[in-house]
Amino acid sequence: MELPVTYFAAVILWVLWCALHSTLITTAVTDYMKKKFGDRYRFYRLFYNTVALVTLLPLAYYSISIEGAPIFRWQGPLAIAKYLLQVTSLYLFIAGASHYRMSQFLGIHQIKTGQADHTLSEHDTFNTTGILSAIRHPWYISGIMIIWAREISLSALLNNIVISAYFVVGAILEERKLVLQFGEKYRDYQKNVSMFFPYKWLRAKIAGASGPGT
């Protein structure tokens, strides 16, 4: 089966968007920007978010506009799985948001205070409570869940693979910055808490339930 050129174009555009988004937040780039702009670096997070949004919206619109007939639908019993994915995704996003200072995430806090960490991490404090005691990246896995919890056309399948890979790579890059920011404390956190799926948390709960006194 010959794929339409528009499908390849969308995949290439998504790869370029992901590469741009990841590159702009690497420590090599942020270190350079901080040295280059000095006090004005406090605007960088806002600039980064603006560039990401302005480039994302037309790309998302284009991707949706070229989608063909679905090759997979969440029908019958699978519809329950789709709704579970959507509800879980929403929960993870809300639970994760409660641990992030939104003004810092958006870049407003940095502009007001003049304080901008060179790592440009989404975390301004080391917090391991709530959802962060079970998984390290609730927003990334929430994003992966929500893009798959819908009807999947061939073009959506290709794009979702790229976007899912981007979320995984984004989490890895974020963790490198967090290690720079928090050091050994974050390394210990990595050892005890899973990145996406709470298998370490579940294992600890099962071990606790089956321990002495049960």
Strand order of the largest sheet: 1-2
CATH architecture: Up-down Bundle
- Terminal CA distance reads 59 Å
Please tell me what the overall shape is. flat
Query: How would you characterize the largest beta sheet?
Result: 2 strands, antiparallel
Query: Which spans of ≥5 residues are poorly predicted at pLDDT below 50?
Result: none
Enter the CATH topology name.
Four Helix Bundle (Hemerythrin (Met), subunit A)
Secondary-structure-derived class = mainly alpha
- Fraction in beta strands: under 5%
Number of helices: 10
Rg (C-alpha, Å): 20 Å
Q: Average the pLDDT over all residues and give the rounded result.
A: 89
Give the % helix. Answer: 55-70%
Instruction: Please count the beta strands (DSSP E, at least 2 residues each).
Output: 2
SSE pattern, N- to C-terminal? HHHEHHHHEHHH
CATH class bucket: Mainly Alpha
